[in-house]
Amino acid sequence: MRIRATVAAVSGALALSAFAVPAAHAATAAPNVTFSKMTVNSGKAITIGATSTVKVKATYTVTHPSTVSMTNILTGPVLYRGTSAKDADTQVVSDDPGTCTKVSSTTLNCTATITLPANELYNSDAGTWKEGGLAVDAKTDATKWQNDLGTLPVRRTAKLTADATPEPVKKGGTLTVSGRLTRADWQHGTYVGFGGQSVKLQFRKAGTTTYTTVKTVTSSSMGALKTTVTAGSDGYYRYSFAGTSTTSSVSATGDYVDVQ
User: Fold this and answer.
1) How many CB atoms lie within 10 A of CB 6?
2) Nearest by Cα to 211 from 182, 233, 240
């Protein structure tokens, strides 16, 4: 999956077969195709847990001159970070060629699957990725890379807890609400504290469906959260985190408090 400016190192069945490019064919003309309408994961951010392997669907359109036969040309989506899909330091190519349906003599609509395993990622890979395309002539091994077909956030999964004490509590008494905000550490396959983040403490009165924000708390260096509130009525307390460009949003499960 991860490469350093060398096509032959891309992992996956597609890359190891038709997408591996011998030097002897370097001068062969690239397939005369153009990618468009690339959509990965329906345009939604990809969120990856500490040990998860996430598979997402990509759809795209391929156009070509009517004189070009697509019989031997394989196509697939690329996710990458950097200025070029071909030479990106971080690059993911679909494991198999796209499955394409002929729309006209010059147009194909295609689908493919991209696999992102957490254990192949650095934590620094979280952020905005670019979408591209790769076409390979299976007979000549000639390739065409296409850049800048869109962007997509790739985020570390966040987790959040909330615990209100004491339970039950007298009306007007003081409740202490503790919790912890963590996020996936891809490099070590675990979850670690996410410090310095603004997290909302929210309350939902028993018998209602909507949470309202009570106050905002900043997580400690280890991701710990702790604050106090005055107990007013029965209901649920939770913490809620809006997320960042590198980390998913998350809300804790509400902790019910009986106010007597």
Assistant:
1) 10
2) 240
